[in-house]
Design a protein that fits this description.
about 35% helix; alpha/beta; TIM Barrel; binds zinc ion; about 500 residues; about 20% strand; 18 strands
Length: about 500
């Protein structure tokens, strides 16, 4: 490779070796194109890496010890945050109380979210800052847990969490920058060389630029503008920004919520919640308005749609602006539950399905009870899209799911959890072949960003973005894929990670 680009892919590269050439012996390692995660949230990943991960904790006391340790490295008044505690893993399975973490951090407010995000656990300092007392009434949609004497226990349910979270100061520019950098390093470590950041504001773009200027962004970012705000209007005026490390030529919209919390918008009620059809966040006219503006100014539209009603609405809005086959490469993010009769519309209007294989394996324990036996046929149905010739780009939706692309690759080809369940895979007819999965994690991600001419495969002239793996994921048994290590990541000809 030379100047960040691949010069030759051959058995004999001797003619290309000069005195300044750095030689790396791959020692038989498998080399594949750098992974492209077509849907992740970089600042949120960076934030999740900087707050306490409580997933594996086995008791309230263990968490108090972690909080005590964290408090030692912080100034009085600085927040200590954590996530993913689950009292079901503790002896007694009781909700915790403020006492232990108050003693552990008397001078720092503490805010720890439960694994599902539906409860927060705070200490006395946080209750004081939020001015919450026994006299505080429960807010609409939320609950402050109280003990037998009516005192607050320190556990806040659902919207009661906002009484505390609104007191947490927003991140400074420096913190945003640190988070993006930390997330980018994590991506490089996992073999990801390009991330499609699914929703950014102007602060994140500024910090990306600062990192690039300081040569501190080890991966490439294809950023989607978050919603129709000032930033979108500004970009409509100036046009797309096409860069080597940072490209901005798309907008991210949300049509509905998520399936797990029954916020996904369905045409018929949830099978396990009659009367509930979820919630639409945008109407067809909104999608159409944005789509027309995007077409007029050279932008791509990427809309989050989980439920079948949301997918149909987005397809209708796109169709009104696109008219038929086209080169605009509009995307639906997730395309998670789609009516079987609507899947051909992706092909008809040249729409890319930007899907996340690990969502299927995370959701499979309960997805069918939410959807019933009919609708589940169009859920996480990669094969149905692929068989119609629809482009399917894969991603993780980190930090909602683990960012490891090998986990995504494994999920795509097995439709099993990481213990190999269920045997044979969940709706195994929808599995991808290994070749399809590798493409969806590389060249299809490049296509979904109009970048397939410059990356996504190992060819002369393309970016020298590649990964060395400890095993051949195209051959080894699936369980071995999960044990495969990234031994080196190269982006733009530079080693951005090595073991
Ligand atoms: Zn997302």
């Amino acid at each position: 490779m030379k100047a960040g680009k691949i010069l030759a892919v051959a058995d004999d590269v001797t003619p290309y070796i000069g005195p300044a050439t750095r030689k790396i012996d791959a020692r038989g390692a498998v080399i594949i194109p750098g992974f492209i995660d077509s849907h992740g949230h970089m600042a949120a990943l960076g934030e999740s890496l900087e707050i306490l991960d409580l997933r594996a904790t086995k008791s309230e006391q263990e968490i108090a010890d972690l909080v005590r340790h964290a408090a030692r490295n912080r100034k009085p008044g600085e927040w200590i945050r954590g996530r993913a505690w689950d009292q079901n893993n503790w002896p007694g399975r009781q909700f915790p109380s403020a006492a232990a973490i108050s003693a552990a951090a008397p001078h720092n407010p503490v805010y720890l979210t439960r694994v599902d995000g539906h409860a927060g656990w705070v200490n006395r300092k946080a209750l004081e800052l939020a001015e919450l007392t026994a006299a505080t009434p429960d807010p609409p949609g939320g609950k402050l847990l109280r003990d037998a004497s009516g005192q607050l226990t320190g556990v806040l349910i659902d919207r009661a969490q906002e009484l505390v979270t609104r007191k947490i100061p927003p991140p400074t520019s420096q913190q945003v920058r640190e988070r993006l950098k930390r997330a980018a390093l994590e991506c490089a470590r996992l073999g990801i060389t390009t991330v499609h950041d699914a929703g950014v504001g102007s602060e994140e773009l500024d910090q990306y630029r600062a990192l690039i200027q300081d040569h501190q962004l080890p991966v490439r970012v294809y950023a989607m503008i978050a919603g129709e705000g000032d930033l979108w209007r500004e970009y409509l005026r100036r046009g797309p920004e096409l860069g080597d490390r940072l490209t901005v030529r798309s907008i991210k919209l949300y049509a509905d919520g998520a399936l797990g919390s029954r916020g996904a918008a369905l045409t018929e009620p949830y099978s396990d919640d009659p009367g509930n059809t979820g919630l639409m966040m945008l109407q067809k006219k909104d999608i159409e308005r944005v789509a027309r503006a995007a077409v007029a100014h050279g932008f791509q539209v990427n809309t989050h749609a989980i439920g079948d009603l949301a997918n149909r609405t987005v397809l209708d809005g796109y169709a009104a602006a696109l008219g038929g086959k086209n080169t605009k490469r509009f995307r639906i993010e997730h395309a998670q539950v789609v009516s079987l009769e609507d899947i051909p519309l992706f092909e008809k209007y040249s729409i890319i399905a930007s899907m996340q294989a690990t969502h299927a394996t995370s959701d499979m324990p309960w997805a069918e009870s939410r959807l019933g036996p009919e609708r589940v046929q169009g859920a996480y149905a990669w094969r149905r899209f692929l068989s119609l010739g629809v482009h399917v780009a894969d991603g993780s939706d980190f930090p909602v799911e683990n960012p490891n692309p090998l986990w995504g690759f494994y999920a795509a080809i097995t439709r099993q959890d990481r213990d190999g369940n269920p045997a044979g895979g969940w709706f195994p007819d929808q599995r991808m072949t290994r070749e399809e999965a590798l493409k969806s994690w590389t060249i299809e991600g490049a296509y979904a960003a109009f970048e397939e001419e410059t990356k996504g495969s190992l060819e002369p002239g393309k970016a020298a973005d590649f990964v060395m793996l400890s095993g051949d994921i195209m051959q080894i048994p699936p369980a071995q894929i999960l044990k495969t290590r990234v031994t080196m990541t190269v982006a733009g000809g530079e080693v951005v990670y090595s073991e």
